[in-house]
Known about the structure:
Blueprint: H1 2-19, H2 26-37, E1 42-50, E2 53-54, E3 58-62, H3 66-71, E4 81-87, E5 92-99, E6 103-105, E7 118-120, E8 123-130, E9 135-144, E10 147-155
Antiparallel strand pairs: 1-2, 1-3, 1-8, 4-5, 4-9, 6-7, 9-10
Amino acid sequence: xxxxxxxxxxxxxxxxxxxxxxxxxxxxxxxxxxxxxxxxxxxxxxxxxxxxxxxxxxxxxxxxxxxxxxxxxxxxxxxxxxxxxxxxxxxxxxxxxxxxxxxxxxxxxxxxxxxxxxxxxxxxxxxxxxxxxxxxxxxxxxxxxxxxxxxxxxxxx
Length: 157
């Protein structure tokens, strides 16, 4: 009886909270999404990379694209590669999950889950950091069984 009461209480509280949220159309949501980024300027790093490591780093200052912002996500267990950002004292600032950007997969009927129809490629990883960041090193990591293994490290300043 107590479990039922708790369940009803939790459901009614969540409905009352969600009932106060405004309903947005897709157009309004897109407009608000654009406003959330505004004209914020960031330092955009371009990292030509392969599964063997980062080869170079170039940076520019500007407004990051929506694609760059969407790709800035935390590391998850499904990410095959990650990028660790370190400051000048080698303290971790941020770690970004990259997924598997170095493998291109062509689907073939009956072999959707197979790695038979794919190959490794080079990728240009782009990330955006605040303009006043203290990033000094980028470390490319591979993730296997939730353990991170360093592939290579590159100094940017």
